[in-house]
Amino acid sequence: MTSRALTVGFDLDMTLIDSRPGIHACYRELSARTGTYIDADLAITRLGPPLVDELVNWFPAERIDETADLYRAMYPAIAIAATPALTGAREAIEAVRAAGGRAIVVTAKYEPNAKLHLEHLGIEPDEVIGDLWAEQKAEALLEHAAGVYVGDHVGDVRGARKARAYSVAVATGPCPAEELRAAGADVVLADLTEFPAWLTEYAAR
Fold this sequence. Notes:
The chain is of the alpha/beta class. Helices cover 46% and strands 12% of the residues.
């Protein structure tokens, strides 16, 4: 492998950022504004899939679109400042750059809000592609010729597999390590602090 050929994709929520505090606060505000009960504690245990996949648990079908729009509009003021980077996130992006590669973020999150998170935290990938979940992520991974995809959810593993990318899973999200392995992850790391050493070995192959 030449260093120029290296493109690594990263998921966002619970891979690069701990979005639980911000999303929890956003769901509580959404509940207050709509008068609809939402168990925010439960909702943040199943992050990964698109917003609408969670909203269907609390709202009737005819209210999903308008509620999703309200949530996304509220999100910047409520969730961005409350959301920290996960340990090792910046170093993981820097490791890709140090290897001469490109780092892209491919996430199910609404793209403008994904970019706000990264800007706020000073994390600067080469590209940010939002609104893609699970197998859909393969579209962006293939378009950008990503050979590696890093994520915390079995949906991320499925996206990597469909794109024929090496699936690196991190056990920092809702899916435990054994579930990620069973889904087909090529390697499972405890968190992104282990990623630079892994990348060095991978790039040397």
